[in-house]
């Protein structure tokens, strides 16, 4: 199991060790002791599972504190372009984004701490699963529009499939930090 600390502080990728044999393969998708020893000590209280057809874009989402959620995200099948945006006002990378390919074959997963907006686009039919450090609270939900002109995120897909709810998310406002 390999852990990679990425440019935006607190965002950590985990690449599991896959054990192949004549039956197929096995890997640990979560291990509290190993994750805690590599910068992800949080406990998780809710698991989520979503299926997306190719071209579906979900996000960018976050929950306001005190309902903020850290997320350990991965794809169980398929492939997704995962995007995180640093919304922490005191962070040296405030307003910056980072993109990752989550691939079921690789089994890689990403820890996205509280303070980030998170979204992904399904590059093929994808089952997206993730563990959350806090429970969902509808009233605490918010986000940033996927095509916000200031962020200029390149999703790599023309005309993504976006929910009506996500289409009307607010734009990024650097003058009104959220975390
Ligand atoms: C998030 C959530 C939603 N729901 C219900 C609410 C709706 O009736 C339905 C679909 O919700 P939504 O359209 O918000 O689902 P996504 O667009 O996949 O949202 C997620 O997608 C992005 C990528 C994220 O990072 C968030 O974790 C999460 O917001 O599930 C629940 O019952 N519990 C939950 O935890």
Automatic annotation (TrEMBL):
Entry EC no(s): 5.1.3.13
InterPro entries xrefs: RmlC-like (IPR000888), RmlC-like_jellyroll (IPR014710), RmlC_Cupin_sf (IPR011051)
Pathway field: Carbohydrate biosynthesis; dTDP-L-rhamnose biosynthesis
A single GO BP: polysaccharide biosynthetic process
Gene3D superfamilies according to UniProt: Jelly Rolls
Site description Participates in a stacking interaction with the thymidine ring of dTDP-4-oxo-6-deoxyglucose, residues in chain: 136
Active site: 61 (proton acceptor), 130 (proton donor)
GO molecular function, one term: dTDP-4-dehydrorhamnose 3,5-epimerase activity
A GO cellular component annotation in the UniProt record: cytosol
Subunit structure comment from the entry: Homodimer.
Family label: Belongs to the dTDP-4-dehydrorhamnose 3,5-epimerase family.
NCBIfam families: rmlC (TIGR01221)
Protein name according to UniProt: dTDP-4-dehydrorhamnose 3,5-epimerase
Organism name: Aquirufa antheringensis
């Amino acid at each position: 199991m390999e852990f990679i600390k990425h440019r935006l502080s607190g965002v950590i990728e985990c690449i599991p060790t896959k054990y192949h044999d004549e039956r197929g393969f096995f890997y640990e998708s979560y291990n509290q002791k190993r994750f805690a020893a590599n910068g992800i000590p949080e406990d998780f209280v809710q698991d989520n599972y979503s299926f997306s057809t190719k071209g579906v874009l979900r996000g960018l989402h976050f929950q306001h504190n005190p309902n903020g959620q850290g997320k350990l995200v991965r794809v169980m099948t398929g492939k997704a372009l995962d995007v995180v945006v640093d919304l922490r006002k005191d962070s040296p990378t405030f307003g910056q984004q980072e993109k990752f390919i989550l691939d079921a074959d690789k089994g890689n997963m990403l820890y996205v701490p509280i303070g980030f907006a998170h979204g992904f686009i399904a590059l093929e039919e994808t089952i997206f699963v993730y563990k959350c450090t806090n429970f969902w609270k509808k009233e605490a939900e918010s986000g940033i529009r996927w095509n916000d002109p200031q962020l200029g995120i390149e999703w790599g897909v023309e005309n993504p499939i976006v929910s009506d709810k996500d289409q009307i998310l607010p734009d990024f406002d650097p003058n009104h930090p959220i975390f």
